[in-house]
Amino acid sequence: MAKAGVLQLASTAEETATFSIDLGRLLNSGARPFYNSPAFSDITIIAPDGRQRLCHQVILAASSKRLASVLKSGDFTNARLPVQGVDSDALDSLLESCYTGECGLSLASAAAVYDAAVKLEVTGLAPAIEQFVGGGLSPPTVVPMLERALGVKAARLVEICLGFIRGRWVVTG
């Protein structure tokens, strides 16, 4: 077992100053290597399909209001927390985005990720997905997107799809 030591950093600055840093970007870039890594992990998230991801409670709580609420309710240190009611791939994408600050998305995955983001209360992600879907719809993609949105009962995405269709509805006669 390694002995704890003291990390002593000598101050060499003669003047002091205050600098602003983008803490969010710093934390995301620093957290990236810890995604699904045993280093400092203190909880295992289990997806509906049984996939397991090693996570860090502080990262999850900072990223998801729902997970923060659950984690505050008890001691989950070294626990296994099953997450049900969302798509496993979408959950995986969300967990990774907690560590990277980026969420890879396609129209094919948007509804499932949106559903997970809403259910887990990931701040800012649902509106970003709504904007992505609204900007990415086209006549060939709107019906498959509408079907996926209906499948996860994502009312806002359904409305975006229907708005797209209504805006292109042509009455002939």
From TrEMBL:
Family matches, as CDD domains: BTB_POZ_ZBTB_KLHL-like
SUPFAM superfamilies: POZ domain
Stored Gene3D superfamilies: Potassium Channel Kv1.1, Chain A
Pathway per the UniProt entry: Protein modification; protein ubiquitination
BTB domain span: 41-107
InterPro entries: BTB-POZ/Galectin-3-binding, BTB/POZ_dom, SKP1/BTB/POZ_sf
Protein name listed in UniProt: BTB domain-containing protein
Originating organism: Gonium pectorale
